[in-house]
């Protein structure tokens, strides 16, 4: 399905989007990637949704990426004898390992690894930061705190520890089981939660064994501090602004978002901006003006994808939410200012032949009457490098590997077309011309650019560029080989 925009849309599936008709409607409205949240639903639920997506992909002959989002370790307090308590600012409150039910003075925090890492003065945030505790003294099994921001605390509320790197693996026992299940099922991307260090990503990559690409969620201050190291071992990034906005001052999140998006783009790795993008559409058919501006900002920054969470998973208007994102994207990308911003932020360290080829392709396409850039790719690298240039013309990625086509559905501006395996460049040009005509990108009277690596089917060999007519008779007339 041809999109008339470049940014991609990720839609989370859930109770509101659980059957063939709704999921197909979401794809037709603009969803390019479907997120399966491993925090909710059984493996059988996930399996059923995966099967529906693959059936829609087959019915529409349209590559669709599936992203399995691993839960990560969840830090939570224990239970209270009365179900909840009111913590007053300035009061003393203790966290400990005692499994007894809590009261207004203490509660169990069943995570000894937190106590091992805490220091005096550290902050703990409870219930998405609504309650803030500051450590006054601590030991291996307790932390005495002062309530600096009070409120109601209740059973099993989440705890964030923004000031320290916790000695926790990003993969819990549940995550390991979910990872193996998702890879065996055949998902295209794995989103890794609670990333603090590059070693977390390396562990997940080893477990995945190449069966899925690894996308690191940046939601911890420690991940922001070592972002370049995490990016180096990741295939993609998600700027998860929910937890990031809890663990950091909210005013810090917008510049971090902009910085991370630009850094990802510079190394040709896809980046998703996520969390609360159209939050009001969970209950309203219309978004707020602020939410529309938020979506537009991510698009102006050059993000590869923007994501819906509860809006499409549990909201009352999932299709409307996807349509709204689609319409905002089309409007923003038609704005002349959008091109000015995108091109002003084009910074890449070009050091290889492939870098030079894709940069030349963009220059030629934008200074002549070229209608599309067609790139042959097996690993996806050529398409990623082409997308990094953010050309003004469409990108058609031609591949014989469905797994590659699916993964590239997350990448800015890339339209994937399946083709047979080739061993001659002339046939690559012919197939590219056929795809451009069939998809409505060019007519027989127009020209396209074809990028490929010779010899074929060998990763990292992008070394040839040709301006080609879309009429096959002209291709054969000018290239008898």
Helix content: 25-40%
Mean pLDDT: 94
Total separate domains: 3
| Strand order across the largest sheet | 1-2-3-12-13-14-15-16
**CATH architecture level-2 label of the largest domain:** Alpha-Beta Barrel
Identify low-pLDDT runs: none
Annotation field: number of helices: 18
CATH class (first level) name of the largest domain: Alpha Beta
Q: What structural category do the secondary elements indicate?
A: alpha/beta
What would you say about this model in short?
This protein is an alpha/beta fold. Helix content is 38%, strand content 23%.
How would you portray this structure in words?
The protein has 481 residues and is α/β, with parallel strands linked by helices. The chain has helices spanning 20-29, 43-60, 112-117, 173-185, 198-208, 221-225, 227-232, 241-247, 253-266, 289-300, 310-313, 318-333, 336-344, 353-367, 381-388, 402-408, 425-438, 472-478; strands at 8-12, 33-37, 65-69, 84-87, 92-96, 106-108, 123-126, 131-139, 142-149, 151-154, 159-160, 189-192, 213-218, 236-240, 271-274, 305-308, 370-376, 395-399, 414-418, 447-453, 462-469. An eight-stranded parallel barrel has the order 1-2-3-12-13-14-15-16, surrounded by eight helices. A hairpin with a 2-residue loop joins strand 8 (131-139) and strand 9 (142-149). The protein is elongated, with a radius of gyration of 24 Å. The two termini are 33 Å apart.
Characteristic key phrases:
single chain, 481 residues, TIM Barrel, M1 Pyruvate Kinase, Domain 3, 3 domains, eight-stranded parallel β-barrel, 21 strands, elongated
């Amino acid at each position: 399905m041809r999109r008339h925009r470049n940014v991609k849309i990720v839609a989370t599936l859930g109770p509101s989007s659980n059957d063939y008709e709704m999921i197909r409607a979401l794809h037709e409205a603009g969803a390019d990637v479907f997120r399966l949240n491993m925090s909710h639903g059984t493996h059988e639920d996930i399996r059923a949704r995966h099967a529906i997506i693959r059936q829609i992909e087959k019915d529409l002959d349209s590559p669709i990426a599936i992203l399995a989002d691993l839960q990560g370790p969840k830090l939570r307090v224990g239970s209270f004898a009365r179900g909840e308590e009111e913590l007053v600012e300035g009061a003393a409150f203790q966290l400990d390992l005692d499994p007894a039910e809590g009261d207004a003075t203490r509660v169990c925090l069943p995570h000894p690894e937190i106590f091992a890492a805490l220091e005096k003065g550290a902050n703990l945030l409870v219930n998405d930061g609504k309650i803030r505790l500051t450590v006054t003294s601590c030991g291996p099994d307790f932390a005495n705190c002062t309530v600096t921001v009070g409120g109601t605390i209740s059973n099993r509320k989440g705890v964030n520890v923004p000031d320290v790197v916790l000695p926790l693996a990003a993969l819990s026992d549940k995550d390991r089981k979910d990872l193996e299940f998702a890879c065996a099922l055949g998902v295209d991307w794995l989103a890794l939660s609670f990333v603090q260090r590059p070693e977390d990503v390396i562990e997940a990559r080893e477990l995945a064994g190449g069966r899925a690409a690894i996308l690191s969620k940046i939601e911890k201050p420690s991940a922001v501090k070592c972002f370049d190291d995490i990016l180096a071992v990741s295939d993609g990034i998600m700027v998860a602004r929910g937890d990031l906005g809890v663990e950091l001052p909210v005013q810090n999140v917008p510049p971090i978002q902009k910085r991370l998006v630009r850094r990802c783009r510079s190394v040709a790795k896809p980046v998703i901006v996520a969390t609360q993008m159209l939050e009001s559409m969970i209950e309203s058919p219309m978004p707020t003006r602020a939410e529309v501006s938020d979506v537009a900002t991510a698009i102006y920054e050059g993000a590869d994808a923007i994501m819906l969470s509860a809006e499409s998973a549990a909201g009352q208007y999932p299709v409307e939410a996807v349509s709204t994102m689609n319409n905002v994207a089309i409007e923003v990308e038609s704005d002349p200012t959008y091109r000015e911003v995108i091109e002003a932020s084009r910074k890449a360290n070009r050091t290889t032949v492939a870098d030079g080829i894709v940069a030349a392709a963009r220059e030629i396409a934008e200074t002549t009457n070229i209608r599309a850039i067609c790139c042959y790719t097996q690993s996806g690298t050529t398409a990623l490098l082409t997308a990094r240039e953010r050309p003004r013309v469409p990108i058609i990625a031609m591949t014989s590997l469905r797994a590659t086509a699916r993964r590239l559905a997350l990448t800015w501006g890339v339209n994937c077309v399946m083709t047979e395996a080739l061993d001659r460049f002339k046939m690559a040009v012919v197939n590219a011309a056929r795809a451009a005509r069939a998809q409505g990108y060019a007519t027989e009277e127009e020209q396209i650019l074809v990028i490929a690596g010779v010899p074929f089917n060998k990763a990292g060999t992008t070394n040839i560029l040709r301006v080609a007519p879309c009429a096959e008779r002209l291709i054969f007339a000018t290239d008898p080989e």
